[in-house]
């Protein structure tokens, strides 16, 4: 809807209302539906079409062959909650408040003791789409805050089926409550209780429930003749991994691959239904993941393909996403689009598709992908900003990426188990400082660590000297520059004395300056934690007789170690 | 041809000759053609369908969609000459003599000062196919020895267009002659002279010549109504990289990507011609590479995708190959075949396809892929043997791979440049021993090496503790075991105290023992080097007035540093 209409004199009000009513009616038959499928911790390299040797995704590969593959597409953040908030607001987490400034450059998210959530002042995608008559549903993981004021139905969604937080557990419902599963505004059970995830086998029916729920919603909206927005976001590829009985053991890479195969089958079923209902030509479907593969989960994590490091980092493995856009009859089949883009662009694109305008009173980071998708008009001025918490770590424009800051994870986390062992074996304990690491790293060559399961390593098996570091390194005076075309794995920094560095860097520095100049950080929402806000007594608990006593409130600063 | 026929009594000779003549006639219309496309140093991860983000291979991706993709397929060796010799003989280099025992576990090949080549006693694929009336041509790089007795036409090929060795150069024709390009038995010019490769721009027309030559051969054989074997093996992705004018600058990863795009276009043109001539249903086409990506070439090398290390190593990056089989009407389109296989299987498969039998008087390592390709009957007992020179480094069966030996490259090569710098900056020179490396490695954390171009690193940016090493490590008593399904990147060795290790390792050890029991190493062909055998005066040089004086023979042991 053109916002200028509202500036028209009062006498035109009746006409405008009439036009609006017409617009809503017309959307019933013409306004395209939007489905955004956001996977959880799935990596760029996990799709067959993005090269995983296990080849578990025939339906996604077919979706790419029928639609457009976007190899240069990014999440809004290397971590889940901020990335999901960036999608639904079209804005970087630093603007919408989904970050913490408790410590410099730390990733924060929404565990169940988080006090904050999506601020009331943020305008979410379904709130806007409602103006064009869309009915919106989220199926799967919300993660934008779980206290009542933050729930999906308070922020534009008409329906919700899924969980508010990660399916961590099982808990004892005494020290910590299990995470609830919601239908709309009320909980209908808890993970590991009514919604079983078998810890030993990894068996769970959740993905099947999410698939069925998606199919049902599409059928209902089709029958009602209403345009819809479906945010389908199952979480089976996030640890603890799970798959249903029919999929367990089907892949060659264990539970992770089984989960991928089940999600892939779900994608296939959803696209097949759109074809059966003959609404495939009127439905734009995006497939993407919320952040890079959780490489620190080792064999239980996904693949970052050729990219460096994984989730939690601002190297490519942390934010480059497996992305497909599908719209039969509109998007040229088999298109490979090297349009730089981010999950925030799906916000703007969906709004444009509905014939509406994005909010004009704030900076929206998402840009409209329709020219690229429909006419292959590439926006070459598009930039990608890589944040870690409150710090702009890197920027990409074209094929060039400049790191202003680098950090993998802290030395304390990285050698946790090793330090434990050394302390036990040494007469003098070793204090984990960067200096002591040198000694430890040195010795590590000769000590075979058979079980380093307590160590945290966001870049297992990788070591790029001068690029990866266990200390936060400030490169702002002379950023580390990479050509991601020649060097997608960020292994070979371009010398800062080279001609190409001198020609490229001023442009990137200007992009950074412009960005910083216009930046008004939102109030950080992820600073405070409190046991009292955990899921003791979510809405609906009375009906199920599952309300638990709420402990006394004692807000503390959340600890974000990386 | 069934070899038992030759044991029949003499009176049946006339009948046999008659049958043979019928067989040759019938092949003219029914015997399938075979095209094997072997790329040079192209990596598993370079194809679009195997995940490279640059997506430079639309024709190969289409070939895979129309045919079968084989993600678990291997070269015969992590280096070019031995791998190519293994293809054409169906036998491991340790058997056919394409190795050196000058030093333990060293990769050797056929530079122009090599004395040896393919032994006379080896039976090459075209020699066998000739029995079924095939005409055979090699286009591109031979690499099985360049002295007269080793040339393609002496070993069963009817035609040859290409070079005998790598296109290294330019040389001065005094200290070293430039490498010749041959047509059949005679040279028709030299690289950097009649066959230009522009050193500055990387422009060369060679790939176009190789494409045209391939198209012409196919058309000629089709007109003649004869079955053919085309070994199409251009070398543009081997350094020095090159591409023709129309392809220069087309990719987003520089000359390497441009070369890939040109080769991909060649594949497309060849497959299109087969369709135009309506012989696509009678032609089996394989696409593969000779070894892993040359990761030590940094931005000028290919991609190993998710696999560890590259060319020259027996980690997956050194030997896992981008492999496609294409045969419209016979191979189910879009098939993903997790059949373990190697380039040696193409030898056996081509022979079976021609209705012939492999030699019975020697061990043939190649196995017949037709049951897997045509009926999806997977041979689960297939093993892959990973050799480095004269040493069996690793073995794979099913998803499990055991390393008996590990080695990346020597510490001397790895820190060559660094040692040079240290020696210059130190009052006391540092002797490059494993012990001194500890010190250097230690300091390396703090010294940013801006130009380490003289260093050799087969695993840039990678560091898997206890798996990668700069010394040769003997694990035969307790092999390093990986599940390549769970862990394709060989990052997480399975503990040798685990139940899975204890259940899997005896089977793998039995495979190794059986292999070693039957092994009769061939006479090593790559031990001796001699300046006198260089391309001073190849056959045909007189006609071109390009014969150079031959220096006095002085054979020496070749030096193979890794």
From TrEMBL, chains A, B:
<dbReference type="GO" id="GO:0004065">
    <property type="term" value="F:arylsulfatase activity"/>
</dbReference>
<dbReference type="GO" id="GO:0043890">
    <property type="term" value="F:N-acetylgalactosamine-6-sulfatase activity"/>
</dbReference>
<dbReference type="InterPro" id="IPR024607">
    <property type="entry name" value="Sulfatase_CS"/>
</dbReference>
<dbReference type="Pfam" id="PF14707">
    <property type="entry name" value="Sulfatase_C"/>
</dbReference>
<dbReference type="InterPro" id="IPR000917">
    <property type="entry name" value="Sulfatase_N"/>
</dbReference>
<dbReference type="GO" id="GO:0046872">
    <property type="term" value="F:metal ion binding"/>
</dbReference>
<keyword id="KW-0106">Calcium</keyword>
<keyword id="KW-0479">Metal-binding</keyword>
<comment type="subunit">
    <text>Homodimer.</text>
</comment>
<keyword id="KW-0378">Hydrolase</keyword>
<dbReference type="GO" id="GO:0005764">
    <property type="term" value="C:lysosome"/>
</dbReference>
<feature type="domain" description="Sulfatase N-terminal">
    <location>
        <begin position="32"/>
        <end position="355"/>
    </location>
</feature>
<dbReference type="InterPro" id="IPR050738">
    <property type="entry name" value="Sulfatase"/>
</dbReference>
<keyword id="KW-0732">Signal</keyword>
<keyword id="KW-0458">Lysosome</keyword>
<dbReference type="InterPro" id="IPR017850">
    <property type="entry name" value="Alkaline_phosphatase_core_sf"/>
</dbReference>
<feature type="signal peptide">
    <location>
        <begin position="1"/>
        <end position="29"/>
    </location>
</feature>
<protein>
    <recommendedName>
        <fullName>N-acetylgalactosamine-6-sulfatase</fullName>
        <ecNumber>3.1.6.4</ecNumber>
    </recommendedName>
</protein>
<keyword id="KW-1015">Disulfide bond</keyword>
<dbReference type="Pfam" id="PF00884">
    <property type="entry name" value="Sulfatase"/>
</dbReference>
<keyword id="KW-0325">Glycoprotein</keyword>
<comment type="similarity">
    <text>Belongs to the sulfatase family.</text>
</comment>
